[in-house]
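Before relying on records like the one below, remember that each one covers exactly one chain. Contacts with other chains, cofactors or solvent are not represented anywhere in the record.
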Amino acid sequence: MRHCLGIFAALVITGLVACGGAESGEAQEEIGQQSSALSCSATCPSGAITCQGSSCSAVDGSHVQCDGVTQLCPPLICSRATACESLNGRACSPSGSSRGCCLSGQPTGGCYCTVNGTWTCMMSPEDP
């Protein structure tokens, strides 16, 4: 009787291990599929642009490209909202990022996101 119970237990354990192996293989496959997507971003004068795909590249101030599809940086349109004076001191993220802003109606200014999370912008053409 003990011999039969031992064989039965061995069969049950083998079955459980086999089932568990299939599940972990499926989990590894799902993880592999999720990690194959890449994300690229480029800093543009009007802010950041991003894309996701199986292959990607980015050039700051120019474009991002994912899976052969290129997204160009949009031009900075000067308005009250994009004026350096309007952006200076406002909240930003992430720290260290930069963006363009408008000085005297021209897209020639720039802002830098400080470590405390606020934009520091050029306020005149002479500002560094």
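The helical segments are 2-35, 84-87.
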